[in-house]
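User: Continuing from earlier, I have the next pair ready.

Assistant: Great, send them over.

User: Here they are, in order.

Assistant: Folding the first of the pair now:
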Amino acid sequence: MLLKKLLAPYPAVGHKGSRYLLPVLAGFFVGFFLWLFEPFQMGELPQDQRFFQSMAYGLVTFVAVLFNVGFLPDLFPVIFRSKTWTVLSEILFEVYNVLCITVGNAFMHAYLMHEPFRFEVLQAFFLPTFSIGFFPVVFYVLYRQIVLEKENIAISNDIQPLVVHHLEAEKVHTSHIIETPQTITLSSEDGKEEFTLPVDDVLFLESAANYVELVYIVLNADKPKKMLFRNTMKNIETMLSAYPQVFLRCHRSFIVNIEQIKQVKGNSQGVNLMLGEGIDYVPVSRTNIPRLKELLGEGELA
């Protein structure tokens, strides 16, 4: 049970705006916490020195968290992939943050006391800093995972009936009407590469740095095919604009074919669209859920 909870999905480090806000909040919290509660015999210092040292340790926290949260995800994107990030990943990452702050505080202490850095100082800082940081972090991560999972499962359960009705309506529609498959042409930004395929064969498109990856169905193939070409999601949206009832920019990095959605599932990372066995799920940002429900509802009423 515990292992299952630790391996449950968890939101990876967020977008850059929140990544840069967190270090500021963490730095201010640590600085004012030390100033108000005066741990580590800080109460013995004169008032002006107590405030200065508290803010110095807050600065250490700010720098450590800024580097770990603000820059590491960009330096090692494979490690911080949302689809592989778990509760255990988050706990280990937060423990790493606490350890970095501990080491930084030990160096700051040596600097403020005009003393050479000694291992004994690190030991003295390790236990109180780690004990103060570790248990609240574990509790917060586990609590947040439960709350987010509950919220997103409720949202997905609200959408799932629309998916079922949409699929049923589509079956009735295709059983009575034989249509010539509509095609769409996608191209690279410079226009040198072009790819034409039936609209119904498109599963989804995903942003990949300066490229876009197209995932599509091939008749009689065991699994979907992928094609990578240089372009932006904004340009791709324009190419797909002739089919506003079919394609949805459901996430800043994804465009999905509404007709290919088979199921909706929620976990602590968010609401995800399942397009079939062996196919990567497609996330939906909360701001795009109303439009998703609207498109699925239109299919139901068609």
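And the other member of the pair:
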Amino acid sequence: MSRWVIFFTGVIIAGAPAAFALNAVKVFPRSKGSTWHYRYSTGGSYTLTVISSSHQHFTEKQTGTVHATIQYRRTADGWVSGDGGHHHSLQVQPQKLTVSITHSSGVLIPKSSLWKPGYKWLSSTKDTRHVTMHRVMILVKSTITRVSKITGMKQVIVPAGKFNCYRVRTIEHITTRVTVGNISRVKHAKTKIIDYYAKGVGLVERDADHNRIELIRYHIP
């Protein structure tokens, strides 16, 4: 059974950053109907669509390699993923996941007035994931802490075009406990993520764990 624990720890950690492609109000669009199409350098693609939006909340739907619907809420300093028991359903064949974010603090994307080189922010998330694969039930509990900093500006060329971008460096520390039956394993990981965000567009490119994500095309209504 230990091979299941090792496998799922890798899957959950590898998939964790996918939700951070949200777009902060004013600096980046979040209007209903906005879509972004991305591709992975290792193969595969996904699409983000804003399916609802208000002054205090917005919801993104992700389809492709991973399917997810995730709600974000506004705070004084920016946007954070929903907490207090918001449930997110994800499907990555051949496993099925139900995710409950039990705690979140800090912000994932700062408000527009804070976007300038040198700005630094913190965030953390705790979640519980119930995973089913080949009729095997797995319980995954994760704590992710992030330190992000805008390190400068850079011109980035992707299939969607040429953009003048903010370069954001994020260091993630992830602690994951995976339980299969009576067997539990704890794994600690550290990940460096480089994101490039463009005003009026959102996430243009991401480099993380030897996998690059590029914006193919987008539509802002």
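Worth noting for the second one:
Residues 2-15 form the longest helix (14 residues). The chain has one domain: 2-219.
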